[in-house]
Amino acid sequence: MAFTVELEEWVGSVWHRFITRRASPDFPDARVELASQQRPLAVLFRAMGGANGIGVEAASDRDLLLRRNVLQQIAGTCKQVPLAWCDAANLRLPSSLAVFPEAALNQELYRWLALLAAQAGQMRHWGRDNQRWTQQLLRRYPALRARYTRLVDAHLQLRPDPATLNTAEAALERALCQALREPGSVEHFPRSERAAWPLPLWLYPPQNLASPQAADLGDESEESLTTPPGEHKGASKRAKRIDEGTRDGGLLIVRLENLFSWTEHVDLDRWSDDSDNPDAARVAEDLDELSLSRTRLRKGGGLKLHLDLPPADVDDIPLGEGIKLPEWDYRKQQMQEAFVNLQMMVPRDCEAQPLPPRLKASAHRLRRQFEHLRNDRQWLRQQPQGSELDMQAWLDFHVEREHGQCAERGLFMEQRQTRRDLACLLLADVSMSTDAHLNDEHRVIDVIRDTLLLFGETLSVLGDDFALYGFSSLRRHQVRMQELKSFTQRYDDNTRGRIQGLKPGYYTRMGAAIRQATQLLGKSKRRSKLLLLLTDGKPNDLDLYEGRYGVEDTREAVLEARRQGLTPFCITIDREAGDYLPYMFGANGYTLIRQPEQLPLRLPQLYRQLTQP
């Protein structure tokens, strides 16, 4: 019996692969994955005028009522197809393309869609808008016409023959083929009960991923919808809100006097299983649409302590009242005043501690390297008197005298001691992601502590004004900024104790932390002001700060700092930083440390490069 079942399963799987392969209109041997093209496509999209801050992501399959042949009906395929679309916040392309028999054509199709999306605006009519955008693109860049023609010719050979369709579908097919050959030549498209065969060269109407029905989940549901660590996050799903059926009311078909005792009744509502389902991620991946409902059921059986603030008697000590800060909303293109509450804090129960013995040798070596910068002497040219002859000034004087233009100038060089006139504020990200391990011995937070300690040892010898702060956040009402050393405090064992007492916090609301650091650094009287941000990832928080919202707010905070005369610079260990940091800090406003364990020694050297005259 078991052998029969296994044989049936084997035959079924072979049949499924066979019929699916025969019914598929794709060319698997020429398939191109979006993952391999994602970064160059994002660069191309922005370079050709696309909105900054929009990343290239995979589009989910979409239902289309297509006319399918017999094989496709037997196999159950071609009910859903991946379609490209773009709106003000998203650029979604198919996760893979195999519509052409040549891989080069599929790669060219990805590039064409990115170029077309860069020209696209709000879609009002699918056919007319795509023709207009194609016309604009070909008119602006005539060199693309040959590539476009090659794609159209290859695609028209694969489209259904109008002779095999009914009257309405054939008329629509002819109109679409005409619109592809000559963009702008078709104004009216015939109606048809069935959708036309997909046009991979056009953008389709966007899916409403940010509708209130899909996004308004409330604070109680945010954690349950996040992707578990280590799980792959695929294309976004369509979602709709449904009303949860109430359990109140109903007919009680029992006489109350038949109950043995009222005191024995315990109200335990355990109708819903709150345990983790190991197959939930796989099942969700297979679903095309997720239905969401608001259930007032508290989870049991586990505590998510990292989402709760610690008790007041063990929490860090707050300094004064909270500070109200603004936040940039890119969707409204306006600043939301007093939107974020930032609380300045100092670590609790952090006793004064000396420098750890493991760092003493590195600190001594850095002090010797930076001592000469404190007493650095600079040659001043064109001086009326000095210890050396200024050969360049003498040559200029000789040439001018030969031409009858003899201007008075000094011909000597003098070496004088120069005073460094700068202040630096180092802002360290201590979110809970820093609790991750780099290797078997060290965590990210350990490297950050060592970096702050060696940075402080170096700058205390150098004599520059500096301050050290850490930050994390838990939604906009709890942005926490730990004061490790202010500009007015000395760098001593008390500061070293605070640094060694740092613990991983919560999330990373960069914009608020940068704005507060800008205010603190802006009060300095020094001529040059450097704001360093040390982080291990991109901006994020439990509320709307995830994704583009956080990136745009951080970018706006960096621009505000530059307008006030500060020099913001980001140091990161995130290998994916090239996808978002150039947009937030500029191409020359950040650096990636590929070996995080080298960060404590690399940061002082980087500071030296940034502050050289």
TrEMBL record:
Coiled coil: none annotated. InterPro entries: NorD/CobT (IPR051928), VWF_A (IPR002035), vWFA_dom_sf (IPR036465). Transmembrane segments: none annotated. PROSITE patterns: VWFA. Residues 212-241 are annotated as: Disordered. It comes from Pseudomonas silesiensis. Pfam families: VWA. Residues 421-610 form the VWFA domain. Gene3D superfamilies: von Willebrand factor, type A domain (3.40.50.410). CDD domains: vWA_norD_type (cd01454). This is Nitric oxide reductase activation protein NorD. It comes from the Bacteria. SUPFAM superfamilies: vWA-like.
